[in-house]
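no rush on this but wanted to send it before i forget. theres a chain ive been looking at and ive put its sequence and its fold in token form underneath. please have a look and point out which stretches look like helix strand or loop to you. thanks a lot i owe you, the record is right below:
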Amino acid sequence: MPVFAYRGRNPRGELIEGRLESSDSGAVADQLANTGVTPIDIRQASGADPAAPAGPGALQRLFAPSITLVDLMLFSRQMFSLLKAGVPIMRALAGLEESSTNPTLTAVIADLRASLDSGRELSAAMRQHPKVFSTFYVSLVRVGESTGKLQEVFLRLFEHLEFEKEIRDRIKSALRYPAFVVVAMGFALVIINSVVIPAFAKLLQSFNAPLPLMTRMLIGVSDFFVQFWPLLAVLAVGAALAFQAWKSTPPGRYAWDKFKLGIPVAGPIINKATLARFARGLALSMRSGVPVVQGLTTVAGVVDNAYLASRIEQMREGVERGESILRTAAATGVFTPVVLQMIAVGDEAGELDDLMLEVAELYERDVDYSVKNLAAQIEPILIVFLGILVLILALGVFLPIWDLSKVALRR
């Protein structure tokens, strides 16, 4: 993190100078203002403060354990429990730092304590760790600080993260069996093309008899695979890296996220799960006191789908122009008529947060039902694919044997 040298005046008008470590000059100015210092000049220092402790090396950062969703859930729940019990926030963070079993999270909590000790707010300190605390998380913490309901915000964040983990675990569990079948099929195809078909081809070639078209195609594919498998491996790795690079670009991510929603079987589940995340996140924001426009902005950043995020941004722009949330939601084309009716009722009754929570629960029930039946929906597709594969192999193997047997019977 860069170091900034600053000059400012304290409440008595005295000139003070110093250095602060922060992500940008704006964060330094906020930190100085919180401590009563009026900044005059803030510039990035040419080098790090010699007295500052050395940060972790690149190798240590590379092998440091990542902060998982479960770690963040436990952090949120423990913060709620400690603040509810009346423990001061600095003492609560100190206790969590000592009890944390994840060294990466321990370092993050230590940095939060140092930032709070220097006068920075908790939300501003969390903003320095965007890989750990999302924009949605930081926004709700900031609202909790301004409204004095920080402990309630941590409880709602815990419930939100718990929902996220439950959805992910259900989808992973449903996809475990199909993924195992696909991997097993891949290994089987590699063995067949590299071992079985070449041995079978040598046997058939010893008879010097014409081979059927299906058999020649199988032998041709096998020969190509055996001769050029290093090139195929390099092309596969290159294609995977190119796909990842393309997907990391804004247009690529938008196109891929839009394509995912149209995938048979899986697309509707991804769509419903994302909309459930959006509805629950917006309800949580509104219940915490966040205005609708700001809530739509923060939720758009955490739906984890660029295509649907653009539709949420479209809703925000419509609300900013003075349109009703019902009209903007209908214009996106991603909500069902039942959900739009619930949004209309909530908007008219002034209970939009409650109705959005019901929308989230409606989508969650649909996702739960779809995930439970996901394996049953994928199995027929796998069976058809396996049947076609076995048919091709059987025709390629048994047709020449059948021809040879007919020749032998004629003799």
The beta strands are 3-9, 15-21, 38-44. The first strand starts at residue 3 and ends at 9. The chain is about 75% helix and 5% strand.
